[in-house]
Automatic annotation (TrEMBL):
Residues 181-311 form the Glycoside hydrolase family 2 catalytic domain. Residues 2-29 form the RuvB-like AAA+ ATPase domain. One of its GO terms (biological process) is DNA repair. This is Glycoside hydrolase family 2 catalytic domain-containing protein. One of its GO terms (molecular function) is hydrolase activity, hydrolyzing O-glycosyl compounds. Residues 32-94 form the RuvB AAA lid domain. It comes from marine sediment metagenome. The keyword Nucleotide-binding applies. The lineage of its organism: unclassified sequences, metagenomes, ecological metagenomes. Pfam families: AAA_lid_4, Glyco_hydro_2_C, RuvB_N. Keywords: ATP-binding, Nucleotide-binding.
Length: 375
């Protein structure tokens, strides 16, 4: 029967002349021009609802090697990077305390410097009415550098409050800037793919007390030994780590999955509805306190909301998750919320349950024992 053969190749020179001659019509596909790619980038930017001027669209097109796929990828990278750096701005949430007997405006000045303290990266000042609800103070940071495990860039914030000529208070702390999110079932850090490779921390900071061997060797245990095993993160067991350990993780680029102390471990406490209501109230207060206490640490990449519970999943995956997620979004804090320590269904990277692992291990051990008896 008559038929039509259509062929496509990117290496026509490797075909023999007789074979090429069998194709009566030979068309050649060329790369897209810079103008065409700029138009594609502009059209994609509208779909993403992001502003893109003509010069920027052309700059993306020049770097896309004549391919629309690369142009769209670069457009998303630019979008993610611009979002993560927030336009080179840092926002401090100022809440005044002890102002009940004070009257008049409080002047708050903020200074952002590199951790070495040599050069100020930005300054700003705001006036807040004593006794008010507080305010946000935004500082533009020149040449903002993002925090990553390979380049753990940190900054130091110095805030001073004045009531007239008198200094009321001073606060200083470190922070880092980075964005972790999930896109198409995969983690991304500052717009680039992120793969977690980690192990567990089980109260090592409590072993032996403040002067114990682990607290005396935090960097050696948390960074040096972990890096030799190609690890870039740790998940804590049922409680977040102390600030001392997070300071080391911030400085050396180790990511932490901090698990909140909402623990069941297969135990049924047989709470009445009234007791569950009290438990839920205090679990939310405790968890919110941990999040707000540690949220300036860029090493905290994820909050694990509970561990191996059985009897309260509806509340944990519903109101508990929604309330914490709402607080995190409202305060501009960036971290992934993981509903349960066993499995995260929103991400494909680590969706493996312990019980499946244990069955696989048992099958291998049983097979090994059987083969040993035969020998």
């Amino acid at each position: 029967r008559p038929f039509t053969l259509i062929g496509a190749t990117t290496r026509a020179g490797l075909l023999s002349a007789p074979l090429r001659d069998r194709f009566q019509m030979r068309e050649h596909l060329d790369f897209y021009s810079v103008d065409e790619l700029a138009e594609i980038a502009a059209r994609s930017a509208k779909k993403l609802r992001m502003p893109l001027d003509e010069k920027s669209a052309r700059e993306i097109a020049v770097r896309s090697r004549g391919t629309p796929r690369l142009a769209n990828n670069r457009l998303r990278w630019v979008r993610d990077y611009a979002t993560s750096t927030a336009g080179g701005k840092v926002t401090f949430r100022i809440v005044l305390g002890g102002t009940e007997r004070r009257r008049g405006p409080v002047t708050v000045s903020a200074r952002v410097v590199g951790v070495d303290g040599r050069r100020a990266a930005g300054r700003a000042e705001a006036t807040i009415q004593a006794g008010g609800a507080g305010a946000d103070l935004t500082v533009r940071v020149r040449g903002a550098k993002l925090w990553t495990p390979l380049q753990p860039n940190l900054y130091r914030a110095e805030l001073t409050g004045r009531l007239g000529p008198k200094i009321c208070d001073r606060v200083a702390f470190r922070f880092g800037m980075r964005r972790i999110h999930v896109r198409r079932g995969r983690y991304r850090l500052n717009g680039k793919p992120l793969w977690f490779r980690g192990s567990n921390l089980v109260f090592e900071w409590q072993w032996g007390g403040p002067g114990g061997i682990f607290n005396r060797n935090v960097k050696r245990y948390l960074i040096d030994e972990a890096r030799r095993m190609n690890l870039n993160c740790f998940r804590t067991h049922t409680i977040p780590p102390p600030a001392q350990w997070l300071d080391v993780a911030d400085e050396h680029g180790m990511m932490i999955w901090a698990e909140l102390p909402v623990l069941y471990n297969n135990r049924n406490f047989k709470f009445t509805p009234a007791e569950f209501e009290v438990f839920h109230k205090h679990a939310l207060l405790d968890s919110a306190g941990w999040v707000t206490k540690l949220w300036n640490h860029p090493s905290v990449a994820m909050w694990v909301l509970s561990n191996e519970s059985r009897d309260d999943n509806k509340w944990e995956s519903g109101p508990f998750y929604e309330r914490l997620a709402g607080m995190v979004v409202a305060h501009g804090f960036n971290a992934v919320l993981k509903p349960d320590a066993w499995c995260a269904s929103h991400v494909a990277d680590h969706c493996v349950k312990h019980k499946n692992e244990s069955k696989s291990v048992r099958r291998k051990l049983k097979k090994k024992a059987t083969s040993g008896r035969k020998r």
